[in-house]
Amino acid sequence: MPKNVDHEQRREELLAAVWAVIARDGLEKATIRSLAKETGWSSGVLAHYFADKDDILASALRLALERIEERWDEKLAGLTGLAALRELVLDNLPLDDDREQETRFLMNYWSRSIRQGPSEDEHTWRRGPLLVDRLAALVAEGQEAGEVVGGDPNDLAERLLALIDGLSLHALLDPQRVTRERQVALAEQELGRLSVGQSQGERR
Amino acid sequence: MPKNVDHEQRREELLAAVWAVIARDGLEKATIRSLAKETGWSSGVLAHYFADKDDILASALRLALERIEERWDEKLAGLTGLAALRELVLDNLPLDDDREQETRFLMNYWSRSIRQGPSEDEHTWRRGPLLVDRLAALVAEGQEAGEVVGGDPNDLAERLLALIDGLSLHALLDPQRVTRERQVALAEQELGRLSVGQSQGERR
Amino acid sequence: MPKNVDHEQRREELLAAVWAVIARDGLEKATIRSLAKETGWSSGVLAHYFADKDDILASALRLALERIEERWDEKLAGLTGLAALRELVLDNLPLDDDREQETRFLMNYWSRSIRQGPSEDEHTWRRGPLLVDRLAALVAEGQEAGEVVGGDPNDLAERLLALIDGLSLHALLDPQRVTRERQVALAEQELGRLSVGQSQGERR
Amino acid sequence: MPKNVDHEQRREELLAAVWAVIARDGLEKATIRSLAKETGWSSGVLAHYFADKDDILASALRLALERIEERWDEKLAGLTGLAALRELVLDNLPLDDDREQETRFLMNYWSRSIRQGPSEDEHTWRRGPLLVDRLAALVAEGQEAGEVVGGDPNDLAERLLALIDGLSLHALLDPQRVTRERQVALAEQELGRLSVGQSQGERR
DNA sequence: CATGAATGAGTGTTCATTCAT
DNA sequence: TATGAATGAACACTCATTCAT
Q: Is the CB of residue D185 less than 8 Å away from at least one CB of chain C?
């Protein structure tokens, strides 16, 4: 009777180490050897559970994206319109160590994708489309509820997404200038602009 | 009797080739050999004029940033306030092939910078501080002229910068969704919001 | 209570799969994994029934040689002298797909044997001695019957064997030049030379 | 001014080591590392002078074949017909250490070719066509001179080639049985058969 | 008896770096 | 000053082998 190993579970265990290495050291430091070392297993075990290095990296991303989506679902449960929008925006900024790691992790793939051109798995590789759609839906919801100012929901969402990722990028590049508090403040300003009632606030 | 070679000039000549390779083939295709081949010199010459590969890449970035600043100076010459702001924002989006290459080039360094933590040359490695300061100055200028809505100029600039880089990122990641036209439209929307007179446009 | 497994029978079953893989894909494609896959068993089972990979390959050869000898016995049953000689020569040429596979299979071992020097199992590894002795015996038989021309039977046999293996080699190396028809024709020519009555045919 | 290395000469120097390793240890022991060790250089130097491992092996073969042809030209200079044929046959048997090494070397490629199917360089990979053509030409020449018995020169040559390679193979596989003296004797018998006057000798 | 998880050495290849010329 | 020969470590990947279950 063979050693009983749950393949899927083992894969996830390994991918957790992959995630850690990539977020900490970057995609180019993520060699088979360094990944194996991080997992605590030998390098051969990675060959066992994944087809090749590309499969490892793609699987790590896929798992990360799945978990992010699950987190969104949890956080947005019970919320609608502007409140949900606010939650989603703030959830996607690197406001704590975990999400900073997450951003760092994802940024590696963005950069890779830009460098190498989209790979065949590209559609699973990008949270962009997923997030922008959610944002647009919530904007539209908020508009219907009279909470959010007018305008094309897709455009508003796209600008929100740009703000989120631009801010995330700058937070990692220059944490001194773009502190976590600053990110929150800037995000709140933007959300304020979108809110029907408060939109005059900043304006004076 | 040494040949009279202007080191600085030769370095710039070499860096131009480096730039070309990186923008064309990406950072990971930029091997010493490929760079040497592009310059037309032997690989040893790169060792001569630069400490190591990192020095080459950092120097290429430094040069690129200098040239970008020069371009800003040219483009903004004679413009002030909102008009200058508009010019600066649009100049920093990847709206033509050259600037797309430029964005790609810079993005390579951002991801490197994020990975490795700030290097000693860090201050020269980031256009962020430079650009955000210019943006803030122009916002303030516009506010004084009554063209731009109120609010902390630094915050407004920071949000503009986030929009610029977020949009740039998405334009490279998903050129289908974020076309050049769309970038312009979104940037104009944002500028419209900042303009005193037009700010109500989108609102209702 | 161990399952009742006939070791020898199981080994032969496994070796049949080994043979199939080697003849089909060549010796270098014969990895433990590919062999295991072909057998339908796990890789561990091969480790169970054989000492190591070398043992697997040597055993496969031994089995193949045994089967070849059995085939000789069948084919030569009832034949003597020149007729038997003719049968034996033609039987050892790669004149159909099965025997081509067989030749390929054996050739893999020849080159191995040449490389590594004779192994301890060497005597079982070579059909040469076996075949040349049979050939010599049949030549002598034919000479006694007055069917075969004179000369040292061992020398005649050795030359016949060289022809057989040289032709086999060339048939695999250059099937265009040394077709199956050509092999038969050449073998018949050689046999004709050995025949007492027909030996003048080609001559003048 | 660069270190002045004659590329072609260095390649030949390296290929001599390649030749030695292959003839001694076989094609599968010929790893980049073992080859480098034999040359006395580091492994990187092989990458310098050859595109990849295939290029190394193919170049080694090509060089060997060129040298063999040159040797033929030298040995056959001034000879014609049967005398030349005799020289060529005997030259292609592993009758001394050098030619034994040569045979061992070539046999590795034959075996590889059989295993893997012909590669794209295949036409340069086989001495068969070259040698068989020379043999056929000399047979025809001998026939015209009345030295050689009748029959299709191509068939006679093909049988001679089979004898040569079959004998070479057996000499390496079983040097005890097929000694160098025996090879000469067997070759002479075959040549005797081809000779017009002596062909009756062995017969009675 | 049988499994397949795990190991780790070995493969071809790439590449930054050094340095004699 | 400039060359490119040479080094050797690092890479992804393959595979025979071991062994807990």
A: yes
